[in-house]
Amino acid sequence: MLRRSSSQKISPKNEVPAILFLSNENGDPLYCKKCEAAKPARTHHCKECNRCTPKMDQIYFERINGCVDQDNYKLFFLFVFYVALYSLFVEFTLVPRLLKEIKAKIGNITLSFCWKVYKIYLASVYHLWKNALLMIWQRKWIPLFTGVQGLEGLDHISSHWYVVTVLGFLFGLTLAGFAAVHFWYIIRNQTSIEYVADKPVFARVNFDETGNDFEVVKIRNDKTMFDMGLYNNWCSVMGSNPLLWLGIYI
Hints:
The chain crosses the membrane at residues 75-94, 161-185. With 250 residues, the protein is of the alpha+beta class. Helices cover 42% and strands 16% of the residues. The protein has helices spanning 73-106, 111-138, 159-188, 192-196, 230-238; strands at 2-4, 19-23, 31-32, 37-38, 43-46, 51-54, 58-61, 66-68, 201-206, 214-219.
């Protein structure tokens, strides 16, 4: 902890509230050596964009021609959320229909039958990648599911259904977990980079308007430094109008 005091006494009339802002360990403003400019709080330098990005959450994405930051974080979260929701919707609409077709042919579904279906799924994934590589190598069209054999008596059900059902479940479950993690970040007002950061944070406290009397304090990085409350944290990303929270409006 550093403390510097000015020689000028501060009278009660000109006392002002202490001003706090993030700084380095010497009390100087944050500085980006790559940009060669002052670095605002909660910014990280992106080497692809070649600039300091405010509240940077994800690395550079070519698909969006930029980083995921405070300007497009809402759109990124809604994209992940809606894709996960759609994947799970497709899954829960496919499974009952697939089970109905299977049950109509074999009757009750047993554990051994489920194991056979799982083996068909593994074989389908294997032949899918194998045939895709063969197409690239031989430069000719090969049906992706060539070599996959269906269950006895269920040849009328394409192996595509098994693969889509299982992949849809895994894809939807993964994205649902990813969306849940970012929901947690939003209500805590932090980014994924800030969550994993373990470096100490310093703040400079000015006790007068001139900045001659100040103190540098080392702040414990407890992941709730910028917490403003659940509702305010959510509104800082999704907006203050609840009617537009699930819309693509920023």
